[in-house]
Amino acid sequence: MAAFGQMLLGGGAFKDRRLLSEESFRRMTTIQTGALMFTDGAEKGYGYGMEIAPPADSKGMLTGEFGHGGAYGNKMVIDPVAGRVIVFMVQHAGWIGEPGNVAWPAFKALASA
Questions:
Q1: What share of the chain has pLDDT > 70, as a percent?
Q2: pTM of the prediction?
């Protein structure tokens, strides 16, 4: 997951090799859901397979962090501004952002470090 995140941080390239076309990366990281935003404290949209946090530009293209969460609390956040990838692997029934989830404070601390 860390290598996959590094490839996404590199815009689709990893270790001097393009693995994902620039167009595919652009579509993955451009909000495709329009006004259909969801919230967990901050509005977000979805590209193709990627959760995209605002700010996005007027065309919905990425200007902030993006990533994807999975079942049992797994989460990957790519922050192109800070140049970092955070992979949080946890096995916990229930979403990581639920009130009372013991993993949430640790994830927030890592994300803000």
A1: 64
A2: 0.69
